[in-house]
Write a structure and sequence with these properties.
Layout lengths: L12 H6 L1 H12 L2 H23 L5 H9 L4 H10 L5 H13 L3 H27 L2 H13 L1 H7 L5 H20 L3 H17 L5 H17 L7 H14 L4 H9 L15 H5 L2 H24 L4 H4 L2 H8 L1 H26 L14 H13 L4 H18 L2 H8 L10 H8 L6 E4 L32 H10 L16 E3 L9 H7 L5 E7 L2 H17 L3 E8 L2 E8 L1
Parallel strand pairs: 1-2, 1-3
Antiparallel strand pairs: 3-5, 4-5
Helix pairs in contact: 2-18, 3-7, 3-8, 5-6, 6-7, 7-8, 7-9, 7-10, 7-20, 8-20, 8-21, 10-11, 11-13, 12-19, 16-20, 16-21, 19-20, 25-26
């Protein structure tokens, strides 16, 4: 008897586990042409630029005026001016290069931020595509990044936060790939990214700190697939620490003034902070949607013997692949750990810094957590997940509310310094500026009249004023010497503290003794307008009477004082 045997070549079980996601990607490459994968991204990028175009041409607001003031002097002034505003100088050197190339125009000043957000959107799309093999999931995370109002705001703001987002996403991606295959280029990439983050914004130090927790977690839970050794990581993180030594002294100085932020940032109570950080639609709703879909699917599977046959190969591979599971762990840890740290130090009162911009690097990483959830679902359930999450994002982003209130989808910044400058520069009347800078509260200890140089050099000419006091005055007057022309620079200019109710009007009245009129520019909320107006009226009374006329430019108030 001749027996025939059919031999079917099979992959080893462990190999199929490790490369299940790769097979899904190969399937995608066969079903989708490169153009089909690129077209959605191009459309999203064009839409991202379109929705930001009007905001690019808006008047700069206070923090952006600080940025332009930092770069308005010589190259040697940049570092000192940045440090006065509690910033590292690296971003401002980049900004000064842009100004030198394109001039002092709002779109040019904001260009680095716009390009950074576009790069972040591209990276989100590519990472999601590589992690899941799904164009739909890649388009989902890129679309949310393109239309999120906070992403739009920081993409059109001349501040370092959009650049921090981009570099943080790149650093986390390089670290994730380094954990799997720690090649020298990948190690150098995440080390460089970590150092750049620390030099761009001090709160971004949370990203390299989180790498330690992530690696420990992975060693304990998925040690078999972690190729990054403890020795190699220790060397790499030590290089990051050594490279940031020049920043330590300034960071400690800021930490010593940490209580200043409590007048602007409330301590976290209840769950209101959760929504302010957009964690409801970034993390909570996607997670609940995923769990609900999986729960219903599991119940249905238990009641039907046919359900296992209906599951797609990609869904089965996603549940088995340890690399895909590691992607989910890494993204969730990088999204949650900085939030937990910042909430802890804020709720404990050590430093109240629970503000969106101080954890600006979290949202792009949080979007990638959607990939690990959506990819574990079958095709139609994945579509349901995308639809539910996208629908809640539209609601959570507040587009419907803004349209009902203002008949606009993108709310303006509401600080028209450009218009105020056009009014003020018509004459040579003295200017009093209440900017609202956190540091302006220190002006309570800087009396103006005894230290004002009447030789015409303004606040820069007094030899009796301390160096710290002169720097503080120059910093608080920075918005008047940034990008907009407020008229004759030799006119009397003086900054006011934030709390005017306790600020004596007598020294200011003496300062304006020869003036027949004056301007007061105040950046205040409507709630504090009355007390500021009362201070202006007290100043008029101290000068023997007169009138005050107020005009509103968004959250800016321009007061015209005329003395008898």
């Amino acid at each position: 008897m001749i027996r025939s045997r059919i031999v079917v070549p099979m992959e080893p079980f462990h190999s199929s586990m490790l490369h299940g996601t790769r097979r899904a990607k190969m399937s995608l490459s066969r079903s989708c042409s490169p153009m089909q994968r690129i077209l959605p991204l191009l459309f999203i990028l064009l839409a991202a630029v379109a929705v930001r175009w009007e905001s690019l041409n808006e008047s700069l607001w206070l923090d952006e005026l600080h940025s332009t003031w930092v770069i308005s002097g010589d190259w040697t002034d940049v570092a000192q001016r940045a440090r006065i505003g509690n910033q590292s100088p690296l971003y401002f050197y980049v900004l000064k290069c842009c100004r030198g190339i394109g001039g002092s125009y709002e779109p040019c000043i904001r260009l680095p931020s716009l390009l950074s957000v576009l790069a972040t959107t591209i990276m989100l799309y590519i990472i999601a595509l590589r992690a899941t093999g799904s164009t739909a999931i890649g388009a989902l995370v890129a679309t949310v990044a393109a239309f999120d109002p906070k992403f739009i705001f920081y993409a059109t703001e001349a501040r370092p936060y959009a650049v921090v987002q981009m570099v943080a996403l790149m650093t986390v991606a390089c670290f994730y790939y380094c954990v799997q295959t720690p090649t020298m280029p990948r190690r150098v990439a995440w080390i460089t990214g970590s150092v750049l983050l620390c030099y761009l914004h001090y709160t971004a130090v949370l990203v390299p700190l989180t790498t330690a927790l992530v690696l420990v977690w992975l060693w304990r839970s998925r040690g078999a697939v972690v190729q990054y050794s403890l020795t190699a990581y220790t060397i790499d993180i030590s290089l990051v620490v050594i490279s940031t030594v020049p920043l330590w002294s300034h960071m400690l100085q800021i930490a010593g003034r940490r209580q200043q932020w409590e007048q602007f940032i409330p301590r976290p109570t209840g769950w209101t902070w959760f929504a302010k950080l957009d964690l409801d639609f970034l993390l909570l709703v996607p997670l609940l949607t995923f769990l609900a879909i999986r729960f219903v699917a599991e119940k249905k599977r238990q009641s039907s013997d046919d359900e296992p046959v209906k599951r797609t190969g990609a869904a089965i591979a996603a549940t088995r692949s340890p690399h895909h599971a590691m992607f989910g762990v890494v993204t969730w840890l990088f999204a949650l750990t900085p939030i937990v740290i910042v909430w802890t130090v804020s709720a404990g009162g050590w430093a109240v810094v629970l503000l969106y911009r101080y954890v600006i690097f979290v949202p792009p990483i949080a979007l990638l957590t959607w990939c690990s959830m959506a990819h574990r679902l079958t095709s139609w359930r994945q579509s349901l997940f995308i639809a539910v999450v996208l629908a809640y994002c539209v609601y959570g982003m507040g587009y419907a509310t803004r349209w009902q209130q203002d008949r606009t989808f993108i709310r303006a910044r509401g600080e028209d310094w450009r218009a105020v400058a056009a009014v003020v520069r018509r004459d040579k009347a003295p200017i009093l500026l209440r900017s609202g800078f956190v540091e302006a509260e220190q002006l309570m200890q800087v009396p103006p009249i005894d230290e004002w140089d009447r030789a015409g050099a303004g606040p820069h000419g007094s030899e009796r004023r301390s160096k710290a006091g002169a720097d503080l005055v120059e910093y608080c007057l920075g918005p008047l010497h940034a990008i907009y022309d407020f008229g004759e620079p030799s006119r009397i200019q003086w900054p006011l503290p934030n709390n005017l109710t306790e600020y004596d009007v007598k020294p200011v009245s003496d300062l304006l003794v020869d003036a027949r009129e004056a301007w007061i520019i105040m950046r205040i909320s409507r709630k504090r307008y009355k007390e500021s107006l009362a201070w202006a009226e007290a100043l008029i009374t101290a000068r023997g009477g007169g009138t005050v006329v107020a005009e509103k430019y968004g959250s800016l108030w321009l007061l015209r004082l005329e003395f008898k």
